[in-house]
Amino acid sequence: MKKLILLGATGSVGTQIVDVVMHHTDLYEIIALSAGKNMKLLRKLLLSVHVDTVCVQNESDALILQKEYPDIRFIFGEDGLTELARRRDYDLLLNALVGFVGFKPTLAAINSGHDIALANKETLVAGGELIQKALIKNNRHLYPIDSEHSAIFQCLQGSRRQDALKLIITASGGSFRDLPKDELKNVTVEQALAHPNWKMGSKITIDSATMMNKGFEVIEAHWLFEMDYDQIDVLMHRESVVHSMVEYCDHSVIAQLGSPDMRLPIQYALSWPSRLPLDDELLFSLAKIHTLHFDEPDYERFPLLKLAYDTGRKGGNLPAVMNSANEIANAAFRNGEIPFTDIEKVIADTVEHAEYQQLHTAEDLSQADALGRRLAISRIRGR
Ligand code: MG
User: Fold this and answer.
1) What is the pLDDT of residues 248-281, one digit of tens each?
2) Predicted confidence (pLDDT) per residue in 65-88, tens digit
3) How far is the CA of 277 from the centre of ligand 1 (A)?
4) Which residues are 170's β-sheet partners?
5) Are 9 and 45 in contact (CB under 8 A)?
6) How many whole angstroms separate alpha carbon 366 and alpha carbon 121?
């Protein structure tokens, strides 16, 4: 029996993690979890998931829930997340938080001797260097839940890592892939949230539309698989059937295919190196799909993809600055404060004006995160 702690249980990936675990209660047990502010969904989860501790975002929610559920301990905030991560009595931390808030509990869990299954990509984008060092120091593993990285991880099985020549990350292009650039100015939040292939949370769906998400995935792949940026390609693929590929030194290309369903990467992160049965509600069939399309990405149409490569190569504090600027700009668009096309302007301008610094500690990283937020907010106000 593998004991799990789940962070971000009420989010899009979090609820799918619970679903996967509930199908294998003989193998996995969630002993504690965190939720944000969706108390209705949390109460529903607590009917089926029996945990000893729950961390919520706000103290006021923790106090109300504590009266309702006397047998569960309720804690709150970022300190609560870190407290869960530092526990000794579990085997795997599943991190499905959204944003940089996921970094500290991930680092705390690794330093407490735990393996990680990571859906929270911002942790690797901002702090990949520190996470990688901690993994090596503590001899721990990090299993990717992002579908592209799970695909690459699957394509690398049974081969020597040094024989891999290139990672090829596929990209659907997001909600506006067929819209001319000059029509992007007036798109609505609702239009941006309608992803053609995947049902996901709102932040990542906007990141997909700007392709910041794909840029993040390039940086994520760099740290996860220890590959140079020159060895990581992005390939447009509108059907989201090929989830990513690895090209080897003999130019053999291995791909992983399947339905766009996050439960597979979630389950593989739990069951590796084994595989477990999974119902495919979408009934994957290549004969029904007929045709798959592939294209080069257009870096002028999607400048944030190029910015992510450039920023990843520069390294230091700059990826963290880019990440927090994106969190601010993405939220500002969703709140109706800026037009869609200003997201990329705010982020590019923030990164350009941030001074490069090396990252040595988690404190350096927190400062980089704060710098990006500050610069991005001042750019939004000064428009
Ligand atoms: Mg992905």
Assistant:
1) 999 999 999 999 999 999 999 999 999 999 987 7
2) 999 999 999 999 999 999 999 999
3) 22
4) 235
5) yes
6) 16
Domains of the chain (ranges; CATH) run 2-144 (3.40.50.720), 149-313 (no CATH), 315-383 (1.10.1740.10)
DSSP states of 182-218: GGGGG--HHHHT--SS----HHHHHHHHHTHHHHHHH
pTM reported for the whole predicted model = 0.96
Dist. CA 217 → ligand 1 center (Å): 7
- For ligand 1, the distance from its centroid to the CA atom of residue 186, given in whole angstroms, is 26
CA distance 378 to 344: 15
Report the separation in Å between the CA atom of 60 and the middle of ligand 1, taken as the mean of its atom positions. 34
Contact 360, 127 (CB under 8 A): no
Q: How far is the CA of 112 from the centre of ligand 1 (A)?
A: 28
CA of 149 to the centre of ligand 1 (A): 7
Per DSSP, helices labelled H in 103-201 are 103-111, 121-138, 147-156, 189-192
